[in-house]
């Protein structure tokens, strides 16, 4: 598989502390990559570096084999990606307006925006909320709007930073089921940060375990989960006590 | 109570009779206040946004001075502008003292810190994650700014209203730098002070109702802008 984004000798430092130290890492087209690790391991920083939203301290990032100059990421490249965070961070306005925002910023014709928003509202089962203020939604509804807002721009890579972690269990399960169907149909490449084994196991097909800013193990999700190495075993075994690994 | 009713009657009489002097004073009041608040907004809004969204060495000291400026006594502002525009002062050659421009300058000095500080406070509340999310949506810097201004419209208009409240109520500085010259620098607040000192309470009260109506109209317009199209 051709890598879309490659990291070479990436380091991220803050206040003389190394947050990330990654000799080599790739995102390949079509995969649903999970990034898992304990709190403070550097998962979100890695996600932001991969999405060109945070500058690395050292090393280089390549997009489709081409080195992207540090701190000079072209807008067109940034617009190939989108992100959904744990907090839905919706704007004060209608659900329609929130979902349309990415397209509005890209200056698409109004008719196209209307059609696309209607399509994504329907896919996420929130057409009835279109005219409602996004700030008055429930957690599950807000996260559906957040994901629809990220998906509507048809990103080459969708970055997800724990978008399900704040939801109650039944809401989480229903949304994850719907989301999996949507992303598989759209064939979107996705990078999913989580510290929840159940979410990772259900959604991803490749998994990278990050501990103390370093990728300690990566490979197909079932293999990593079933055969953790010495660096990841203690972290994964704690999770396995609570979740069976049946996919 | 009788005085109050007389004052209201007098105010209505003054407006209905088309008293030229009252109209000239009211018009000048409106003009200097609107120009002052427009300039304060023009400078204070970008400055407040900049201070709210950026971090640099000396920012806290700058904010401290701006916050102190919010409580700047108008007579002090008037004194500074007078010294600046005095014949032997740095801007004395411009001969602006005792002109409406001098009043505008003094009013900017007292309202600019309010607009700047309240705007800064509003923008400081924007979380890093929200900025990241907007950037990740594909926004340019200008588009980010427009989104934030729209999101903070209520707080920004509140800052402008607070600044306007300060300029329309201002009297000490206007008296000092304007001189309360009839037909030239006499505004409603300085006229009220003058009429009270002459013992003409009915006229002072009438003028105070005109001033209040002016403040009410402009604040109502800003409130309308602030509160419109809120979807539930």
From TrEMBL, chain A:
Keywords: ATP-binding, Nucleotide-binding, Transport. It comes from the Bacteria. Signal peptide: none annotated. PROSITE patterns: ABC_TRANSPORTER_1, ABC_TRANSPORTER_2. Pfam families: ABC_tran. Residues 5-237 form the ABC transporter domain. The keyword Transport applies. InterPro entries: AAA+_ATPase, ABC_SmlMolc_Importer, ABC_transporter-like_ATP-bd, ABC_transporter-like_CS, P-loop_NTPase. The keyword Transcription regulation does not apply. GO terms for molecular function: ATP binding; ATP hydrolysis activity. This is ABC transporter ATP-binding protein. It comes from Neobacillus novalis.
UniProtKB/TrEMBL annotation, chain B:
It is a multi-pass membrane protein. The chain crosses the membrane at residues 24-49, 61-86, 98-123, 144-169, 203-225. Keywords: Membrane, Transmembrane, Transmembrane helix, Transport. Its main location: membrane. It is found in: Cell membrane; Membrane. The keyword 4Fe-4S does not apply. It holds the Pfam family BPD_transp_1. GO terms for biological process: transmembrane transport. Residues 26-222 form the ABC transmembrane type-1 domain. The keyword Transport applies. One of its GO terms (cellular component) is plasma membrane. Belongs to the binding-protein-dependent transport system permease family. This is ABC transporter permease. It comes from Neobacillus novalis.
